[in-house]
Amino acid sequence: MELKEILKDLTAAVGISGYETQAAEVASKHLSEYSDEVRIDKIGNVVATKRGEQNGERDERRRILLAAHLDEIGLMVTKVEDGGFLRITAIGGVDSSILPGQEVTVLGRRALRGVIGAKPPHIQDPGEAAKPVNMDDLYIDVGLPKETVEDVVEVGTLVRIESEFLELSNGYVAAQALDDRSGVAAMVETMRRLTLRKHAWDVYAIATAQEEFSGSGASGAAFGIKPHVAIAIDVTYGAAPGLPERQTFAMNKGPAIGIGPNFHPKISQKLQDLAKEHEIPYQLEPSPSPGGTDAVNIQVSRSGIPCGLLSIPLRNMHTTVEMLKLEDIKRLAELLSIFISELDTPFEESLKCF
């Protein structure tokens, strides 16, 4: 299956943080094409394993962990009101300003399509339009009376914000949940490319749960697998009008390599060296403080794990029209597969010195 179709399949699946079951099944399907073993662990992570050309029992074998988070932001019902209207709260970093007028699916005992109501501008108070949108003022309308809604929906019912997967011009796509299903797709593509390359180390590709909420999926996976090296795969801020240039990254210029205390300098440098050697476009992403990726939780697991970060430039983050260039995913996968194929004992030993 082509990368675009894999990404479309992944973004269509529901996977709100803490409730990733459907998305996990889809990720498992695609990862299993190129893995020796795939399982879903107790916290909801998809764990795909591809064994390398090394000998020895498990504890003796060298292991690299790849982590791209599977979960997405979403909503939860807090109250069923008279008239069948649903009050909501956020799961993850939802920007309430994008919600009025959005289509949603209420994931009750049966799925209900609905819309998030918006006050018409004609009857707003003077200056009201300029005020921030308050989540407490929003409601979902499913077009049913309260007694019917209560048969299907209860407090705690999840709500997915809906959008269509859009294939745009020049190799761009837009969809919800590209943060970070694009990272999961990059892992699938990396595993595919590793079928064409020899690699000594075992590869654990983890589609992690709950990154948008707590990062506990990555923490649990890293603790259990005990990798010798880890690479987190996520998205970063794509350049767009009105955004500060020094905090954003160009589209179609390759992945961004994380630089900062969260990332082992030898790993960051090795990724840069390989990108130059193989003429893969890349960018540098300075991160002087811990960022919002799985690398934060992996790095401090057990007695510490050397980490790196590769990010895909993404416009409109945490909206229903997140946008990226497919070629940037392919470039990331090519760089990562080369990095994995060159892992050896001298490089592992070099990580002990900064």
CATH hierarchy, class of the largest domain: Alpha Beta
Helix content: 25-40%
For the biggest β-sheet, the strand order reads: 1-2-12-3-13-16-14-15
The radius of gyration computed from the alpha-carbon positions, rounded to a whole number of angstroms, is 21 Å
Relative strand content: 25-35%
Reported for the largest beta sheet, the result is: 8 strands, mixed
CATH topology tier name of the largest domain: Aminopeptidase
What is the 3D shape?
globular
Number of domains: 2
Secondary structure tally: strands: 17
Count up the helices. Answer: 9
- CATH homologous superfamily classification of the largest domain: Zn peptidases
Backbone structural class: alpha+beta
What is the distance, rounded to the nearest whole angstrom, between the alpha carbons of the first and last residues? 41 Å
- Report the average pLDDT across residues: 93
Outline the low-pLDDT stretches: none
The CATH architecture category of the largest domain equals: 3-Layer(aba) Sandwich
